[in-house]
Amino acid sequence: MALLKRGLAGEPVKILQAKLGVNADGQFGPATEEALKAYQKQHGLAADGIAGPDTFAALALPELVLLTVGSKGETVKKLQAALGITADGAYGAGTAKAVSAFQEKNGLEADGMAGPVTLAKIDVFAAAFSPEAVAKSQAAPGTVSAGGKPAEAGAAAAPKKSIWQSITEFFS
């Protein structure tokens, strides 16, 4: 599940921090958590200090939305309704199957996960998931290795990958 919470580090954390107006060091610590809770409370979201699809949507950060098995909320419900399946707001196996079928039908990689590339092809999401948002959702070539770690200097440039692959844990 694509969530940001205390103890994670990476480019998505840096993007969230910049939007929240806190030091954008890419490490989700106590200051980020408190700023996020305040934002969530102010905007009628569950003030749990965990950023997921609904928080990313409220923050206008479509590049961070990645719906996968285990995701929950209004964004999932909106996706399910658009796919014509039961809209219960819980991304389970049935939703993943419907997303895979949609992806296959639309010439996308059929991985069953709904990120910016997939969501941009669904009418109800198209306005929020502009080509710019899709581009922001990807790491620049060579910045993320296959294992999700930063690529070494001088390494051959890799194809663009999801910025979510830059996520690591910084607490033990």
Automatic annotation (TrEMBL):
InterPro entries, alphabetized: LD-transpeptidase_YkuD-like, Peptidoglycan-bd-like, PGBD-like_sf, PGBDSf
Pfam family, one: PG_binding_1
Domain Peptidoglycan binding-like: start-end pairs: 22-59, 84-122
Entry protein name: Peptidoglycan-binding protein
Originating species: Xanthobacter dioxanivorans
